[in-house]
Amino acid sequence: MKMLADRILVKIEGPDGERRSSGGILIPATAQLSKRLTWAEVVAVGPNVRTMESGDRVLFSPEDRYEVEVRGDDYIILRERDVHAVAAKRLDSEGTGLYL
């Protein structure tokens, strides 16, 4: 899939946005707080995206998204400006691994 302009295609980790606490407790997506940001993995990026690559993890608001189904899998389309942070192994040498 080829994304256009500054668009990013991401896949939310875990089924339906579920997450685990630091103690290992599974927290369902329905228990998320309204202003809680979500992590997802970048699957594809448009040609004008400058700060992330496929395989990076990004932090975004679940309210700023468009959902799409591709070959039976659910993905989210974001704009680069809607991403709050990027975590990638290639950034580890620069400090925290987060690009804010």
Automatic annotation (TrEMBL):
Annotated InterPro entries: Chaperonin_GroES, Chaperonin_GroES_sf, GroES-like_sf
Gene Ontology MF terms: ATP binding; metal ion binding; protein folding chaperone; protein-folding chaperone binding; unfolded protein binding
Pfam families, sorted: Cpn10
Record's keyword terms, sorted: Chaperone
Protein family per UniProt: Belongs to the GroES chaperonin family.
Record PANTHER family: 10 KDA HEAT SHOCK PROTEIN (PTHR10772), CO-CHAPERONIN GROES (PTHR10772:SF58)
UniProt protein name: Unannotated protein
Organism: freshwater metagenome
Organismal lineage: unclassified sequences, metagenomes, ecological metagenomes
